[in-house]
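so my prof wants the structure for this chain in the tokens format not the other one, which i didnt know existed until like an hour ago. anyway here's the sequence
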Amino acid sequence: MPFEMVRNDITKMDVDAIVNAANRSLLGGGGVDGAIHRAAGPELLEECRGLGGCETGQAKITKGYRLPARYVIHTVGPVWHGGTNGEKELLSACYRNSLELAAAHGCETVAFPMISAGAYGYPKEEALSVAVEEITRFLLDHDMTVYLVVFGHESLVTGKKLFRDIREYIDDVYAETRIRKRRESARKQLWRENEGAALDLDMEISQAIHANVSLGAAEPDMSIMPSGAPEADWKKIIINTDKGFSETLLQLIDERGMKDAECYKKANVDRRLFNKIRSNPAYQPSKPTVFAFAAALELSLPETRRLLEKAGFALTRSSGFDLVMEYCIKHRVYDVIQINEILFELDMPLLGSSAS
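here's what i got, hopefully its the right format
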């Protein structure tokens, strides 16, 4: 663990191994394949000549030569023929065989391109789903950092319903904020010009607020309802203690009945980072790390706010990143990788990974 999505040129990734989306000859070609061969130099082609090609779904390994990576793992993805010719199984095999080969050679960091999603025509959203499924399954049993490298600002999940719903939610909140600011500006202007009218307006606002509170009391806010996880006395843990973030997190994990490894893997957090948190009661994490653990523990929105406070943060509606997390927690979207797909598309910080 963890799994990270990055925008970069894969030939510049300083990792143990990069994966080449090769053709069956392994002798170079266009796209990622050609770029890797050019960056590695002619020695790579010379070694590839002795490999005898590679079948679709399989993987073979060579040295990295002039690349920052020590190794290049060559895998051959399937050409898309509508999805009824075993394309998914073959694409899954590409990721699985490449990762197993990396592990066999002691690799701790591996970078993949989006296999088959270019000239081979595999639909990008479906190709991403296969990549995420295979990589995350592998990482459940292996300590490795895996990068999925996307070149430029290519869109991957804009067609997903969750992405559209979150964009709409952000737009609605921002629109509401703009309207509120205009109303407040008009209210201030009214106080300067006509205090009597301004006082009447404030009385109307006050009455409306009290009426809404009264009406809303009979209808519970679903964002603060239990998430379905076993009910521990988390509120008491978070509020009635002077413990910092580290101690509070560890107590929440125990109350949830989770193992440490289960929690940090679900949060997409690197084991070494979790060990830092565990060993240092004064540890101050980044905001994305706090949100990652909130998702892993399936906290409600009020509980998330309190955990953020333990790390010195607040949940604010002026931040697009916070709004994405607010939406996901309200709607109980707790899959960190799924959330990261949305954050990645919006060019926002990702949850967990190896960051602080």
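also thought this was worth mentioning. The chain is about 50% helix and 10% strand.
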